[in-house]
Amino acid sequence: MSTTLTKRATVYLDPAIHRILRVKALETDQSVSDIINDALLHELAQDQQDLDAFKQRAHEPAISFEALLKKLKTDGKI
């Protein structure tokens, strides 16, 4: 774990997930907390990337699903 201050939290895990985390922790010489922190940071970063993409494309014209299907058929893509 990093040298910064940490905050303790109670999280309830499915027993199978907890078992997998413990095995991974042993195999990678990491703590379960480090693995969970890394996974959460990764997911939050992906969420931020998605939000950034939505923001960048906010002014693009919208197209209905039906119109998209029609265009794909016309272009021979489906």
Overview of this protein structure:
- With 78 residues, the protein is an all-alpha fold.
- The protein has one domain.
- Helix content is 63%, strand content 0%.
- It is built from three helices and no strands.
- It is elongated, with a radius of gyration of 21 Å.
- The termini are far apart.
- The model has no long low-confidence stretch (mean pLDDT 93).
Mean pLDDT: 93
Number of helices: 3
Rg result: 21 Å
Helix content: 55-70%
Which spans of ≥5 residues are poorly predicted at pLDDT below 50? none
Element-level helix/strand string? HHH
Our measurement of the CA-to-CA distance between the termini, rounded to an integer number of angstroms, reads: 50 Å
> Could you state the oligomeric state of the chains shown?
single chain
**How large is the share of residues in beta strands?**
under 5%
The class by helix and strand makeup works out as mainly alpha
Task: Record the SSE blueprint.
Elements: H1 15-28, H2 32-56, H3 65-74
Summarize the structure.
The chain is elongated, with a radius of gyration of 21 Å. It has one domain (15-74). With 78 residues, it is mainly alpha-helical.
Features:
78 residues; mainly alpha; 3 helices; 63% helix; elongated
